[in-house]
Amino acid sequence: DFEKSTDSLRLSEDLFSAALIAGSIANYFDFPLVIWATTFSSVLMNLNEYPTVMAPTWSSINQARTLTRLFERYNWREVAVVYYSARSDVIPRCSLIVEDLELMMNDNPNMTMTYRRQVSNITNSTFKNVLRAIKDVSRITVICLESVEARRNLMVAIAEEGMDTNEYMWLLLEARKIGFGVFPG
């Protein structure tokens, strides 16, 4: 019986919607819920709504906060953002980070998101069009791409557009928590 369970800790790898439900249940029954997952929405870190939820992994707000601190440290005021969510309907990792980043930047009068684009097509020509637009508005670009193919195509487009120089800063986010390499195994 769930109510009579003596377990004081639940580990979860649930998807976002399931985590919201689990967080509400954990709050109701007043037991701790540990979210062990890839990047998840900062909504679950609302202590009023989910006081018993904890997470050893990063929520989207942590990554957005880290980026804004980096921007402040180096006085980067104009930032472009490009992202691609390979599984946006299942686990919207990149879009969660970008949403929180935009909220934080909107609260800071010294920062402007000069360009924001979610790409749905990860071809070389799509990335070239995005890069041409970025050239006019920013030298600092935050990139969150959830597929290896998208990263490769972007890097090729950056080189072909002559933007692989010290003039540009590319900040690649890794939202899947597996690093940037794929190792045989």
From TrEMBL:
It is found in: Membrane. Its main location: membrane. Residues 18-172 form the Receptor ligand binding region domain. The keyword Zinc does not apply. Pfam families: ANF_receptor. Signal peptide: none annotated. Keywords: Membrane, Transmembrane, Transmembrane helix. Gene3D superfamilies: 3.40.50.2300. InterPro entries: ANF_lig-bd_rcpt (IPR001828), Peripla_BP_I (IPR028082). This is Receptor ligand binding region domain-containing protein.
